[in-house]
Amino acid sequence: MIDSLNNLAQFDIPRHIAIVMDGNGRWAQQRYKPRVFGHKAGVDALRATIESCCSLGVEFLTVFAFSSENWNRPTKEVGVLMDLFMLTLKSQVKRLHKNNIRLKVIGDRARFLPSLQSKILEVESLTEGNSGLTLVVAANYGGRWDIQQAAQLMLQHSIDNHIPLIELKIEDYFSTAGLPEPDLFIRTGGEERISNFLLWQIAYSELYFTDTLWPDFDQDGLELAIKCFSSRNRRFGQTSEQVNETFNNK
Ligand code: IPE
Ligand code: IPE
Ligand code: MG
Description:
Layout: H1 2-7, E1 16-20, H2 24-30, H3 35-56, E2 60-67, H4 75-98, E3 102-106, H5 114-127, E4 134-141, H6 143-161, E5 184-187, E6 206-209, H7 219-230, H8 240-248
Parallel strand pairs: 1-2, 1-5, 2-4, 3-4, 5-6
Helix pairs in contact: 2-3, 3-4, 4-5
């Protein structure tokens, strides 16, 4: 692992990586196992990815764990996913804290059981002051929900404080307020779509899609994605010449 990390020294490490962890169900089905088996293996893959991100010096990792549309799955699978979220929080809290990781959960948590809501709050406040990786878990998250709730909050703030809307920035009301926008967006599992993840925030992210099913995603997979990211020319609307000039003047 040390070797492969050294190999990355020449590459740009994204400051913020966002991942749609897709393919758990198919991974289990390929093994003639129930889907829950894939979700459990998915938690292991997440743990390994968090470790890799810490070693590589990635500052922010945002993972899509449960979308606002995932409630439409069979009740049993939804129940299993909720239980797994709770169990994982309980079993990993010490490890996260020991590794100086700050946990933040984004999404509409009002629909979760009160016990899950208070566990989330507990882990967030315990790890709030940590200065290592910020791990953002998107649970009951939808990009459209985020834009809508931000618009409502911004409007309320404008009315309450007599501030014209034009002077406010919607970014300050997103659930991701204070986080930099993702540099690299990864989706595993072969589908090439956003599925209502961070809609506004990925406006200028580099998109990377892989057929690897999430439980099989490992350090090598992450390195491939980072190498690909590193080869991209991010122009943010400018010309290559302008970008190179800024780079040379640094
Ligand atoms: C992603 O894996 C995990 C969640 C959406 C919770 P899936 O469960 O969507 O796996 P596939 O896409 O059916 O293989
Ligand atoms: C996106 O995956 C949501 C998560 C990974 C949590 P889905 O499996 O729900 O996406 P679709 O249904 O294929 O678009
Ligand atoms: Mg899926």
